[in-house]
Write a structure and sequence with these properties.
The protein is an all-alpha fold and 70 residues long. The protein is built from three helices and no strands.
C-alpha cells in the first residue's frame, strides 16, 4: 500500500475492554470483495483498531441505528 495512513490513538477505547486478550473467541469466516476488504482494513488502521474491534463497533452502530441496542 503506497498511501500513507495516519493512525488515531484510541488507547482508552471501551471496545478494547470488550475484546480483551483473555476473552474466548471463535473464528468467523466469510468472503467479501477485494475492494471492501481493502476499505475495511484501511478504516481499521486509520482508527488504530484491530479488524475484530472494528467489526464489533460496526455491529454495535448498526444495532443502535435499527433500535435494537438496549
Amino acid at each position: 500500500m503506497s498511501e500513507a495512513i495516519q493512525r488515531v490513538s484510541h488507547t482508552a477505547s471501551p471496545i478494547r475492554a470488550a475484546v480483551g486478550e483473555s476473552e474466548n473467541r471463535e473464528a468467523l469466516a466469510f468472503k467479501v470483495s477485494p475492494a471492501f476488504r481493502k476499505r475495511f482494513k484501511q478504516r481499521a488502521v486509520f482508527a488504530d483498531l484491530k479488524l475484530n474491534e472494528l467489526l464489533i463497533e460496526a455491529l454495535d452502530a448498526w444495532e443502535e441505528k435499527q433500535g435494537l441496542k438496549e
